[in-house]
Amino acid sequence: MEQREVRDIDALNAALNSVKVLRSNVRRVFESVSNGLRSDHGEDGKENKYILELQELLTTVNNNLREVEGSVANLTPPPGPFTLGNTTYLSQETTLERQQLYGQLVNNYKWTDKIRAYSVLAGDIFESNKFVKTHKSTNLLVNQKRRKPHAIHHNVPPEIIETFINGIGRFYNDMTVTANRPAGPNPVIQISLGRVFKAIIAFKGLIIEFVTVKSLSENNDLWSESRYKVFRKVSDHCNAAMCHFFTPYSADTSIKSYMEWLHSYITLFSAPCKGCSKRLNSNMPPTWRNFTTLEAYHEECK
């Protein structure tokens, strides 16, 4: 009997270790996808090197998954249903307040299971039904009819996106634009604005979804903030401007307006504030730009 229990414990430890290895390698896959093309891939054939690296990681994950399945198959099924452990003693409390804890705990488990099930169903529904906005006409003089809805530009062929992005850099001599696609057709572009900063911008079709501003010496991770406060402030203003310039009816015009506004930061460390005529306020340059006039302001002076 004791030898059987020892074997069961060894099998359980082997299964837990295989799950631990699987989680570690899955994390490496997500890190590789989020980082995209890196400098250590080199310049020649870096896309092929990145694809081979990702294939190797996925093959490792597939092998780890088989090991987990084999380890789980070696486990001895439990003789009966699982209990809640020591929480079952909560129902034996003599205090009225503690007696209610067991029922609340069971309800919380049920509620969590329902939330998980509903989340899976909601994800399937959103995946199968793409979100499209429509535009209603406010002109009541044309037979009270609605205008034809304008399609939002979130689903655009990759070649159109590529052509549009390549055209951005030609408008400004001091703005360098590079693009990559770490996950599917939607690009993530990096804009180097002179020697001031770089902006990493995630697109959904021809719609800007997220912007991160960093120094030229920092990494190109979209989801990590800059270690410098001035660039974190500029990132906040860039994401606010993304909402200001957004329009579902003319995405190309809104992006051009946004890029013109972003280009005004070429004078981030040289232009004085329009409000106080100072270059520094609380050791910070004027990090905000007017959406119309493109004039520089401190956050406190706008």
TrEMBL record:
A GO CC term attached to the entry: nucleus
One Pfam family in the UniProt entry: Med27
Compartment(s): Nucleus
Alphabetized UniProt keyword annotations: Nucleus, Transcription, Transcription regulation
Principal location listed in the UniProt entry: nucleus
Keyword Manganese: no
InterPro entries tied to this protein: Mediator_Med27
Top-rank taxon: Eukaryota
Family to which this protein belongs: Belongs to the Mediator complex subunit 27 family.
Name of protein: Mediator of RNA polymerase II transcription subunit 27
